[in-house]
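I am writing to request your help with a piece of structural work I have in hand. I am sending you one protein, given as its amino acid sequence and as whole-number tokens for its backbone shapes. Kindly check, if you would, that the fold set down in the tokens agrees with what the sequence suggests. You will find the record immediately after this paragraph:
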Amino acid sequence: MGWSADDIPDQTGRTAVITGGNGGIGYHTALALARHGARVLLACRNEARGKAAAERIGAAAPGSRVAYRHLDLADLSTVRAFAAGYDADRLDLLVNNAGVMALPYGRTADGFETQFGVNHLGHFALTGLLLPRLLRTPGARVVTVSSGLHVLATIDPTDPNGERRYRRWVAYARSKSANLLFTHELARRLTAAGAPVTAAAAHPGYADTGLAVAGVRMEGRRTAERVVRAAGRIVAQPAAAGALPTLYAATAPGVAQDAFFGPRIATLRGAPAPSPRAPWTVNDAAGERLWDLSEELTGVRPQLPAVR
């Protein structure tokens, strides 16, 4: 059978922030944590959907504490506002889950290519700004959601915004490689600092989340949208199953620094297991370059001692 949501340890007294917790694997991550006693904050762009998701989780998990907070990863001013307004004394779990996939070329409010800006830079800034709370919470974890498709492309630090040539799937893969390389570098720095925080990553395999539909819908490709939706219904595993690697990374005992989990069966479906990753996502020099670039672009400088 393998590990399931029933194996999640008691989360009573823990506080979790989940980006994009209003739908897909983020919603099921939030629901499972709430059912096991965690206080959950849904950090979402859309207020109506965020509040509706909080109400659904409250109904499904009576007595749980779930709330919506505004956060738009495509606008760093809202990331700063979210962090400034975070009022809990502790933060046990930050799940960097929200993301976009294979969109037509666009830019965030701060001028970054949308996929790199939302999937990586927004989460880098959020993690950096919330790091003081994480560091004050022994046993805290940062779990960043990547994708098995990260293997399609490594990061180009000389052209992070895809200005020379934009290919939407390559840009997506680069942003997901950035998620893993960020996790690697964060884990390295936490270890060097002797900090009581674990940085890990996960991916959902092929899960029916609707994420892949957004790009073709924006381009008005109705036939392609129908095909993608049908594939999601027929081939993909349910979103609740896709959330299991994230939940494992977030709650299972003994998760190591820089661990990466995905579905066990061909990395596409099934119970969580350690997942293979591209070699460029564990390259120390590349991780340091990405960290420095991310600090420069976002203006956020996470307060950790330099790697020794």
